[in-house]
Amino acid sequence: MQTESNMGNVYSERIDALRGMMSRNGWDAVVVTGSDPHASEYPAPRWKQVEWLTGFTGEAGDVVVTADHAGLWTDSRYFIQALTQLEDTGVELHKTRVPGAVSIPQWLSDKARVVAVDGLCHSVSSVQELADALGEGGLVVDVPDMLQELWDGRPAMPVTPVTTLDVECFGGIQRVDKISWLRKWMLLGGYDKVLLSSLDEVAWMLNVRGSDIEYNPLVISYLLVSQDYVKWFVRKADAAHDPDTVDSFSELEMDGVDIEDYDAVFFALSDFGEDGTSGTIFVDPSTLNSHVYEYICGCFDKDAVICGTSPVILEKAVKTASEIDNLRQTYVDDGVAMERFLFWLEGEVASGRVVDEWEASEKLTAFRSEIPGYRGNSFENISAYGPGAALPHYSTPRVGSQVIRPRGLYLVDSGGQYLTGTTDITRTVPMGECTGLEKEDYTLVLKGMIDLSMAVFPKGTAGCQLDALARMPLWKAKRNFGHGTGHGIGYYLCVHEGPQSIRYQYNPQPLLPGMVTSNEPGLYREGMHGIRHENIVLCREAGTSDFGEWLEFETLTCCHIDTSAVLKDVLGAEATAWLNAYNERVYRTLSPLLPPDVAAWLRFKTAPI
Q1: How far apart are the first and last CA of the chain?
Q2: Does a structural domain hold residue 101?
Q3: Are strands 221-226 and 92-95 parallel, antiparallel or unpaired?
């Protein structure tokens, strides 16, 4: 068993072994991505190749290895974490999404001619960018499952039971209607077939859920749709004895979905291309892996493979009326769990009992698990006290986590998966006396979150046009944060989804009524504290005027915001009024659902300032 002191050497040895493979095959460089064959944000253990190779556990990171250099490319959410985890591995941090950042294709353009990738885990778009950067004379070599021969004990591909959603009870659209909608889109676009490879798109289309990937209710699979058939390529043999699984597949088959083995997607594509009359096939190069794409191009005439953005992304982002109704109630239920947790935490810490970050995280999960319809967390809880909160994606250690003291700031970012929706919430909690700087930072971030919550904007506005509302209070104080302000959220699907976002990077997608998005500005001081306030907002219509149609946000999150660290003169009158009204609504909504002692505590916590 490896100890913490010698793990760095283990990663160095693995990189050396990879360099041996490179030397034997004549490769100048290898690019290892942190994703899987379906461009998933959170891959199953089998595809955590960056973690296996370097020890870096962040959700976003790619590695380049050459004969004399190994580097990890990641963004500001993970800079501090990466520097810690990469120590003694020989891997150098390359920062992305910062001024002057050099991308992997740019960096390799004058350093390599032959670059090997695992085409199963690289999207078509990423390989094309790499090939363009290498230019004439450069070569990108596809080596599927490249690390297989080096990775002893590599986990197998997961296979978990498949369940189907009853949309009559839990909201949404019947799968036959979704298939009819997609077929109409295909007819209008002149596409004979569509291959969907993104797992949340497949799950949404078929109203199926699984647990092949931790925190994400997804099933590893492909979906092929034509006017005549729907073929779902999924591995189910290992779960065939589960009664729910058998019933789920029967239900799908009754709706005209043919169930085939996961690997049979290659045989199916071969058959379609045999006589050269199989028409056109539409794929999304941002989520389809390069290996499958090249295979398709070998089966079809090159002009018959049409690349574009999948229509499913936008369709599932706009929630139906029934889904929205369910989400409102789900955020109330989730708020009950949050308030019970915050009451418990404050009481335990104030009593002098030792509570560390890990115990707090587990207690919150226990409260959520009591909610009917709970199906697990939507991501790994971020439970961070003091300096740990300065890492936006802090990974709470099971052993040796920080003790939460009766002073300073504690940050908890968490969420649940429920049959009636997905939740995500961050609360930064004053545990006692706070410094003047902590209070000022706390208030500025809160003002940014409130200013964005109050936004009214014309129809057609994109999230990137609203991002500055959340940053302006911080900018005026010459402070900032490196991550995005908001991401889309799925409906009992992935906690992060597009196509909308609220961030300063350009994204032309307008915010549409029915979209559910996070609102989470932050501020991080390395070695001191981190602050993030996050509510989830629903985009809805706000009426019309002589100047057009208008939109606004409805806050779905139902959990009080602590006012003890607020500087009222910094927050300002308008934001203070919003905060008081929000906290009063939280109290009136949740108090009848809480134990009497928690309700009394919440009355005190939501008193107006």
Answers
A1: 55
A2: yes
A3: unpaired
Question: How does pLDDT run across 431-488, given as a tens digit for each residue?
Answer: 999 999 999 999 999 999 999 999 999 999 999 999 999 999 999 999 999 999 999 9
Is residue 106 domain-shared with residue 230, that is, in the same domain? no
Say yes or no: 243 and 302 in one domain: yes
Per-residue confidence band for 243, with pLDDT thresholds at 50, 70 and 90: low
φ and ψ of 269, to 5 deg? -65, -35
Whether the bond into 458 is cis, omega within 30 of 0: no
Q: Could you identify the residue written with the tokens 């929000």?
A: 582
Length reported for the chain: 609
Helix extents (H) in 405-537: 436-453, 467-476
Domain that holds residue 251: 163-316
Task: Give the residue from 149, 172, 205 where a domain finishes.
Answer: 149
Name every residue whose Cβ is closer than 8 Å to that of residue 388 and which is 6 or more positions away in sequence. 357, 394, 396, 401, 402, 530
Is residue 156, in this structure, part of any structural domain at all?
A: no
Q: What is the pTM of this model?
A: 0.92
Q: Of 264, 292, 316, at which residue does a domain stop?
A: 316
Strand partners, 120: none
Task: Return d(Cα 194, Cα 283) in angstroms, integer.
Answer: 6
Place of tokens 């932050």: 522
The confidence band for 245, taking pLDDT boundaries of 50, 70 and 90, is low
pLDDT tens digit string along 52-65?
A: 999 998 888 999 99
CA distance 103 to 116: 17
Q: Predicted confidence band at 80 (pLDDT cuts at 50, 70, 90)?
A: confident
Return the number of other C-beta atoms located less than 10 Å from residue 438's C-beta: 20
Q: Domain check: are 370 and 486 in the same one? A: yes
Which of 89-103, 234-248, 304-318 has the weakest average pLDDT? Answer: 234-248
What distances in angstroms separate CA 374 from CA 20, 262, 324, 330, 337, one per listed residue? 48, 29, 17, 10, 11
Query: Do 266 and 310 sit in the same domain of this protein?
Result: yes
Give me the number of domains the chain comprises: 3
306 and 328 fall within a common domain = no
CATH of the domain at 289: 3.40.350.10
The answer to whether position 534 is within a domain reads: yes
One domain for residues 557 and 436: yes
Q: Is the previous residue joined to 499 through a cis bond, with omega within 30 degrees of 0?
A: yes
- Per DSSP, the three-state class of 502 is strand
Q: Which residue carries 């410094």 as its tokens?
A: 435
Distance of alpha carbon 467 from alpha carbon 572, whole angstroms:
20
pLDDT at 470: 98
